[in-house]
Write a structure and sequence with these properties.
The protein has 362 residues and is of the alpha/beta class. It has 14 helices and 13 strands. It has a seven-stranded mixed beta sheet with strand order 2-1-13-12-11-10-9. It has a two-stranded parallel ribbon with strand order 3-6. The chain has a two-stranded antiparallel ribbon with strand order 4-5.
């Protein structure tokens, strides 16, 4: 397979080989490590904040690209990390493709939201995706601009779509959608079927506009890379429903998305979502579990029961926020197969120490 060269990841050929072995189930020398550190001898330049969603929606490409250039020049992407930047318009962008509009607050410019627009499902069904929707066309424009800026330097990342149940939750509001499962379940089922039809054409359009191919591979906000089509799969809304409701309405959508992708990581968010862990692990096309315990909870590496259950089910693991001491401790408990460590490191020496230890002890 031909590959591309990346200015800010000169060993990209080696890294793609490591990732290819990872997806094949092989441990090539050691578990994979994702780490970026400040580039030695380079001072960060000042400038406007990146505000990735805001600059995208305002089409402020000058500020956006200046921020990206600054990050690239001042960051060293080590081990199996790959420089990339996403095209996202906001967490609820999938709902925006169906008519919702983005809202910002000057006190919280790092994110945005949409207000619910569905008062009665009967008034809006079937949900139809219009390729001329202005937010969707805007996203494709951002993707094309990013691909031009990225060429030969970094990769354009896959969107964080928040599809399936998260889209219905944004369109209707979480509390009203919860009641709808009891008040009008047949309408919710219809809405979910409509949303499921949208995922593949949206993904493919953004994939193409972003310049992705087998040569570039794909990478997402969960920083895993694969040669084919990759994304995170999730439904944060699932923490608000019972296993029975989740199995009937949400699990089929997750199975469909995972089957469409070549590889994926499931983002399981918060203790309320743990009731669905067995059902998630039973989805054969989910490759990796990312467990996010949530604020006020012990860090992910303390949840060894969850991590071991995922490994027993044949799933890989993203373990983040770790240093060498933590890796040494949990390596006694977990198999090295399928693990990707996203490490907290301040210097190249920190990362080299971790990779050296893993090679010697795997």
């Amino acid at each position: 397979m031909s590959t591309i060269e990346l200015k800010y990841k000169p060993d990209f050929a080696r890294v793609r080989e490591m990732w290819n072995h990872y997806w094949a189930g092989d441990v090539l020398k050691r578990p994979l490590v994702v780490a970026s550190v400040p580039r030695e001898g380079v001072n960060a330049r000042g400038g406007k904040p990146y505000y990735r969603y805001y600059t995208a929606l305002q089409k402020d490409y000058k500020t956006r690209f200046a921020c990206i250039d600054n990050i690239l020049e001042t960051t060293e992407y080590m081990a199996e990390s790959i420089p990339f930047f996403g095209t996202d318009l906001g967490p609820d962008q999938f709902a925006s493709f169906l008519g919702a509009e983005f809202k910002f607050s000057e006190s919280s410019m790092e994110t945005n939201w949409v207000d619910p627009i569905v008062e009665n499902w009967e008034d809006v069904l079937p949900l139809r995706f219009d390729e001329n929707n202005h937010n969707f066309k805007h996203l494709l424009e951002v993707a094309v601009k990013m691909a031009e800026h990225a060429e030969g330097r970094y990769l354009v990342g896959v969107c964080d779509f928040h599809s399936n149940g998260d889209t219905l939750s944004a369109l209707r509001s979480p509390e009203k959608l919860c009641m709808d499962f009891y008040d009008c379940p047949e309408l919710v089922a219809r809405a979910m079927r409509d949303v499921r039809k949208i995922y593949q054409p949206v993904y493919d359009a953004v994939y193409k506009a972003s310049g992705m191919s087998r040569a570039t591979g794909s990478i997402g906000w969960i920083p895993f890379w694969c040669e084919g089509k990759f994304a995170s799969v999730q439904c944060d809304f699932m923490c608000m429903v019972s296993p029975e409701i989740c199995r009937e309405y949400i699990i089929p959508a997750l199975e469909e998305e995972a089957a469409f992708l070549d590889h994926c990581v499931f983002h399981l968010d918060g203790p309320g979502a743990l009731r669905h862990l067995d059902d998630i692990l039973a989805i054969k096309d989910i490759d990796v579990l990312q467990w996010v315990p949530g604020d006020g909870q012990p860090p992910v590496y303390e949840w060894l029961d969850v991590l071991k259950k995922a490994q027993k089910a044949g799933k890989g693991l993203q373990i983040y926020g770790v240093n060498l001491d933590i890796i040494k401790r949990i390596s006694r408990e977990l198999s090295p197969e399928g693990i990707v460590y996203c490490v907290d490191a301040k210097t190249r020496e920190d990362v080299n120490e971790i990779t050296d230890w893993l090679e010697e002890n795997t």
